[in-house]
Inverse folding.
C-alpha cells in the first residue's frame, strides 16, 4: 500500500457544504438541522445546495 500525497490529501480533507461553519467534531461546533430544507435534504426534487442533501449543517454553538 502506498501513501502518495494524493492519498493523504484525500484523507486529510473533509468536504464542507455551503451551510457549514466548521468541520465536523471541531471544538465549539455541532450538528444542526439545515434551515434551508428544514432537515429533509431536498428542496423540491433536487438535493439541498446548503447542506449537500444531508439535512444537517455544522455550526458554532454557545458563546455570548
Amino acid at each position: 500500500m502506498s501513501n502518495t500525497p494524493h492519498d493523504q490529501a484525500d484523507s486529510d480533507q473533509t468536504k464542507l457544504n455551503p451551510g457549514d461553519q466548521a468541520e465536523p467534531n471541531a471544538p465549539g461546533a455541532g450538528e444542526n438541522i439545515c434551515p434551508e430544507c428544514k432537515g429533509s435534504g431536498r428542496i423540491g426534487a433536487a438535493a439541498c445546495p446548503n447542506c449537500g442533501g444531508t439535512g444537517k449543517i455544522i455550526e458554532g454553538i454557545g458563546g455570548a
Observations:
- The CA atoms of residues 17 and 52 lie 6 Å apart.
- The chain has one helix and four strands.
- The helical segments are 5-12.
- The longest strand covers residues 29-33.
